[in-house]
Amino acid sequence: MGHLGHLKQEYRAFVRRLEATQAALPEPRDPRAWNGWKEILEILYSPEEADLASRLPVMPTGLDGIAKRLNLAPQALKPRLDALCDRGVVLDLVHPETGDTKYVLAPPMAGFFEFSMMRAKDSIPKKRMAEALDAYIHGDDTFVREVFGEETVIGRALVHESGLDDEVPEVLDYERATAIVSDAQSRSVSLCYCRHKAEHLDKACDAPQETCMSLNAGADFVIRRNFGRAIGRSEALDLLAAARARGLVHIADNVLQQPTYICSCCACCCTQLQSINRYDLHGVNPSGFKPHSDPDKCAGCSRCARACPVGAITMRPERSEARRTNELHPLVDDDRCIGCGLCADACRKHAMRMQRDGKPPYIPRDTLERTLRMVIERGRLAQLLFDEGAGRGARFLNAVFRTLQALPPAQRILAREQVRSRFIRAALARSGDLPLPKTGS
Q: From CA 415, how far away is CA 429, in angstroms rounded?
């Protein structure tokens, strides 16, 4: 962290604070990336705001709880939090029935990076921000590996339903983009962060920008803070259909319950897809479906390979009797494929269809489970647990324990090794297949 000496103390504290979130804002090695990193901090936060943000909770907390934590009067704190919410660096979550509001520090991704480019015009200088983001994210691989370098990632691919094989058994609602947006309690649409950023870098593709949908609590925040506009079920389905027609990939929040977004992504601009194409990382959780080609129907045209957003299909030459030239047939790299189904949509002969993968991916149940998995994999459970647990009491700790105990043994072992508390480590062992910690450990 040598470069941090060039930052104000308030920014140093804020960067350390983000280490308790699901994905931090680590200092890059490359000088251009480091300058972009510093620029992002200075664009989004004044030193006073960075100081405030460095003391905010990373799990939803009510105004009175935050005021007590910061030793401030609630009526003095609220306008300062609202100003940060208007820029998307803090999220206010309003209970739909009680109206109770809780605040939480937004992570970089998915969080304040996206919100910074969701509006065409606001107080954030868009071109300057786009240049800073590009320098930081692509100057070296520090941030990309922070977000996409472990098993649990932020987003999951959804198969294009039009490419499913007729013999595929029932497709579950959480696997279908149409069902996810239809079942959402609220919906909004905003500018695509990635393509809006690319526009200011003079690298924009021809895909539309107003495509990224927020859902449920995410949509409520986007609408309330004017990051996008409210849409109904019919328009949401039309947007999905238009995105499929343009060959865009549906990437949703990597949770089963109450997902907060569905993006329609292009390989040229999307940061998640670029993590696969540029760095060979596991940037997107696969859909659970894989393409299968019928050699009797395949014409060897390579449309499937050209449509694949992650380069998972190559055309393999094969000899055929009584022919002087080779025939071409698609070869799918199962480890790289995300199961989006663009290849099946591109095939005019209906030779490529999507079938169920024999090894379906694991999807976290909810945001809490995904967050815990991510912080465990990044070795930061203690920062999240003790900072928040100390201020949120038994209800929070009980929810965390239930989630931790439901994790597979390898994850629980990692979690136990990161936490020194004998009480917590014993709780992690109560499922029966982990040994209790020894006295004094």
A: 11
**Residue at 348: amino acid letter:** R
Q: Which of 283, 284, 289, 344 is nearest to 313 (CA)?
A: 344
Q: pLDDT tens digit string along 399-422? A: 777 777 777 777 777 777 777 655
Task: Report the amino acid identity of residue 242.
Answer: A
**Alpha carbon distance 205, 246 (integer Å):** 12
Domain limits for position 351: 148-356
Q: What one-character-per-residue DSSP string does 1-54 give?
A: -GGGGGS-HHHHHHHHHGGGSSS--PPPSSHHHHHHHHHHHHHH--HHHHHHHT
The b-or-e profile of 49-80 (16+ CB within 10 A means b, else e) is bbbbbbebbbbbbebebbbeeeeeeeeebbee
Tell me, yes or no, whether 156 and 21 share the same domain.
no
pTM of the predicted model, to two decimals?
0.90
* pLDDT digits 0-9 by tens, 115-164: 999 999 999 999 999 999 999 999 999 999 999 999 999 999 999 999 99
Whether 181 and 316 map to the same domain: the answer is yes
Helical spans, DSSP H, in 86-192 = 113-116, 126-139, 142-148, 177-183
Peptide bond into 390 cis (omega under 30): no
Cα-based torsion angle of the residue sequence 53, 58, 64, 69 in order, rounded to the nearest 10 degrees? -70
Q: Which residue has the tokens 């994210």?
A: 137
**Do residues 38 and 135 make contact, with C-beta atoms less than 8 angstroms apart?**
no
Q: How far out from the chain centre does Cα 292 lie? A: 28
Among the candidates 140, 160, 185, a domain finishes at: 140
Give the domain CATH number at 101: 1.10.10
**Separation between Cα atoms, residue 396 and residue 375, nearest integer Å:** 16
405 and 318 belong to one structural domain = no
